[in-house]
Amino acid sequence: MADQNKPESADNFFNEILSPCELFAARSRSHKIPARGQKDFYPDDSEEQKQRLQQRLDEHWSLISEERVERLGNLVKAVWSPSERIVELQTPAGKFWQTMGFSAEGKQFLLPEEALYLMECGNLQVFHQDLPLSIQDGYEAFLSSDSVSLQQYQVFGHLKRLGYVVHRFDPSSEPSPYARQLNLPRSRDRGGRQLKRKRSPSPAPTSSKTAAASQAEEMEEEDKLPESHLVASAAPQTSSSGAAGEVQARTWWPAEVPERQAGQRSAPGSQRWDFSSICFPDLGSAGRLAPLDASLLPGGVTPGVCDVAPWMRRINLRKVKMSPKEEERERRQRRRDVNKDKEVQRCRNWAEYHKLLERRQAKRQGRPAHLWSGEVQPLHDPTRPISTAELLEKISVIKSTDLLEGAARLKGSEEWRICFNVYQPDSVADFKKSNPGKPYARMCVCSFDGPVPDLRVIKQLSFQSGDVPVVYAAVDHGDISFYTFKDFQLPRDIYP
Amino acid sequence: MAAEGVEKTSEDASSSGKVCTRFDLEKETELRFEVEAGEAADQVEMELLTGMAEVFGSELNRNKKYTFGPGSKIAVFTWQGCSVNLYGKPEVAYVSKDTPMLLYLNTHAALEQMRKQAERENERGPRVMVVGPTDVGKSTVCRMLLSYAVRVGRRPTLVELDVGQSGVSVPGTVSALCIERPADVEEGFSVQAPLVYHFGSTTPGTNIKLYNKLTSCLAEVFSQRCEVNRKASVGGCIINTCGWVKGSGYQALVHCASTFQVDVVLVLDHERLYNELKRDLPHFVRVVLLPKSGGVVERSKECRRETRDEKIREYFYGFRGLSFFPFSFEVRFSDVRIYKIGAPSIPDSCLPLGMSQDDTQLKLVPVTPGRDLTYHMLSVSSVDDGDEDARKSIVESPVCGFIVVTNVDTQAQVMKVLSPAPRPLPRHTLLIMDIRFMDMK
């Protein structure tokens, strides 16, 4: 069959109009690529297989090189305008209009990738300078790094052929996280714009700024504006309220401040009495008492000199009666004089002494003080009881994270962006371009040669996408694989 | 101690029909007399005729008759010499030269030196703890030091930790009182707006954890007051403690010294305690051993109980039962919630894991009102139990007053209470005390 067709197509390559018999042959031709199983390609190094494989390859080539035949009347005519990178329809659109294209100023337009796809499907004939473009021309003219790249088109075409509805993703049509948080209904204004499916920004990076892209950026900025306004207006508010609070605090407690300072200065036990100059009549340590200064005494009191010595003989020296139990305890805790301790001797007041005791207490309880004095401290104080689950939570150095955690703060990257909204095939019947609804997924196109998206990108894109999953389409020279990154919870065995 | 050099000059019947005894005192001597205890005993009146004299630090007015009721034990001290008339028949009356007043005055002078320094350096004043076994005159020494301090223009604070014989409020409480004038010769310090915490028993041993907790509370409040009131801060405080100086009682003393961050500890007449405290308190705390006065008499158990009773009566009826008129009204059980602090102790092995005994000692246990409530004193807590937090704070909150249950009617579910204020009760949370009071007089 393939052998038959080959010379014919070669001969008539430039023939625009076909003869009836040729047409008949074209119609009766089978368009199916013969299906082959994997076993057929399993190499067994035999000449026979080699031949068979070669034959299959030839069949394949002849099939795809075969000229396709369409009725001129079925083709929708369109004109390519390279300056705007857009295709304008000249004749009424076909069925594809339900899911593709947009109208503006009373005209119908197709985006280049849509036009190319329709050309490939044999629904569209695009003219440029009154000459029809071949599909190859289309590939060359329509696809470029600053509108739709080849890889993006490959993903687009692949999904279209599978029946999905694929639209360019427009970041500005996405409600801002703030609006999402408030659960605002889509604004009328936005809906209106949606109706006329405005020229969406090209999904390619905007390194060289096309008009559309810059426009889109403006839109994005516009979209951000309310938020930035919010932030801007909030900031002075907080600062002013902070200042007001300070002022208030000052006016409220004017007298308190010096008092406080005084209180702090006289912080408990921060002074040290000089007991060598302040002499108590202590019977325990005999010392001569100085004559009293009259200014220290109440009026009218004129004492003589006090002699401690005669009293010392009269002090109660009798043994304390103690029960055997008490004596036992006494013996056990035959405590040393606390003041023999060097560290205690260094303490000058109660505050320091309490600190020392605290430190020692801590040491006794099995938390070495030196571990706790530095900036880096142990994760858990062993003296403090805690449930197993809480402890596990505390010692899990690598915290599990939510995909959306902290994503709001990330800035978008140039390299990675969502390209397409994808709607499910079964929605095509009642699909409305003006109100497409929530996409089934969003596509981010990346090359198989390129880097794997990192966590930052994944976070940022999934945050941008909201509750619609982001699918990464990795293109490997025409083969497309789809990947998604999903949140998951590590299993937990401990339940309190 | 023998009364040496007594000068008993005259003894004749006075105009009031009472026996009048005149005493002429030399300088730095004191006249000690005791009034007979008991219902039937007569009061004794005292009048300063010439010179100057003081009773426990408070000066006497000349030619004013002071009345002392049964059981009073008074010492009239003079720095310059004076003559005093006693009317009535005291149980004992003698003049003693042998008094440690000079030592106490020297102690005051040292404390005053500290206050001066505190004032100069904008620091806090001395915090003094007075310790010693029972019946050595701790409360009297406190009273003297406070009176002297007030007389030189200070505003010290009395912290009363003696739950058995409280000088400020009813027994079974710990309290703090700001002293603004010398003690009245007859009545003692005027009790105005004291800070009182419920302890519930007359000995700290019944719930030592609670005792220590309340000590900490008082220390905390006192420190706060010192921060805002410069005068109170400079004045410092004088802490009167219990006479229990062994075992847990001793530990409670050390704890008190630590929480109040005391600067000076005055040990009265107990060398062993002095040595122990010197050993267990850090070196910057001055521990001073002082003798007790020869005039201090030992009080019997009955005597202590009577004083307690008298103190409670004074709370309801005023000094000598003359000035106040308490109210008696009925309170429905449903209107109040009665608690006891401290659950009975359980062996550690029966406790839930990780819980220690002190948790139970500070726990509020609801008491179902019944006949055994009769004659019990109840503290009216200043906090109402709402949620769990409030209930926890009840233990650590001061009380606003006390009532005594005089009768319980389980049928009608009401109890009759004696209250210093008319109905209704200001709060509905009542804490029960071990102390009972029978309104008999």
From TrEMBL, chain A:
Belongs to the SEN54 family. Residues 205-216 have a biased composition (Low complexity). Residues 172-248, 322-341 are annotated as: Disordered. Keywords: tRNA processing. GO terms for cellular component: tRNA-intron endonuclease complex. Coiled coil: none annotated. It comes from the Eukaryota. It comes from Xiphophorus maculatus. Signal peptide: none annotated. Residues 62-127 form the tRNA-splicing endonuclease subunit Sen54 N-terminal domain. InterPro entries: tRNA_splic_suSen54, tRNA_splic_suSen54_N. This is TSEN54 tRNA splicing endonuclease subunit. Residues 323-341 have a biased composition (Basic and acidic residues). One of its GO terms (biological process) is tRNA-type intron splice site recognition and cleavage.
Automatic annotation (TrEMBL), chain B:
GO terms for biological process: brain development; mRNA 3'-end processing; RISC complex assembly; spinal cord motor neuron differentiation; tRNA splicing, via endonucleolytic cleavage and ligation. Pfam families: Clp1, CLP1_N, CLP1_P. Residues 325-439 form the Clp1 C-terminal domain. GO terms for cellular component: mRNA cleavage factor complex; tRNA-intron endonuclease complex. It is found in: Nucleus. Its EC number is 2.7.1.78. Keywords: ATP-binding, Kinase, mRNA processing, Nucleotide-binding, Nucleus, Transferase, tRNA processing. Residues 132-318 form the Clp1 P-loop domain. It catalyses: a 5'-end dephospho-2'-deoxyribonucleoside-DNA + ATP = a 5'-end 5'-phospho-2'-deoxyribonucleoside-DNA + ADP + H(+); a 5'-end dephospho-ribonucleoside-RNA + ATP = a 5'-end 5'-phospho-ribonucleoside-RNA + ADP + H(+). InterPro entries: Clp1, Clp1/Grc3, Clp1_C, Clp1_C_sf, Clp1_N, Clp1_N_sf, CLP1_P, P-loop_NTPase. Its main location: nucleus. ATP binds at residues 30, 73, 135-140. Residues 25-118 form the Clp1 N-terminal domain. GO terms for molecular function: ATP binding; ATP-dependent polydeoxyribonucleotide 5'-hydroxyl-kinase activity; ATP-dependent polyribonucleotide 5'-hydroxyl-kinase activity. HAMAP family: Clp1. Polynucleotide kinase that can phosphorylate the 5'-hydroxyl groups of double-stranded RNA (dsRNA), single-stranded RNA (ssRNA), double stranded DNA (dsDNA) and double-stranded DNA:RNA hybrids. dsRNA is phosphorylated more efficiently than dsDNA, and the RNA component of a DNA:RNA hybrid is phosphorylated more efficiently than the DNA component. Appears to have roles in both tRNA splicing and mRNA 3'-end formation. Component of the tRNA splicing endonuclease complex. Component of the tRNA splicing endonuclease complex. Component of pre-mRNA cleavage complex II (CF-II). Belongs to the Clp1 family. Clp1 subfamily. This is Polyribonucleotide 5'-hydroxyl-kinase Clp1.
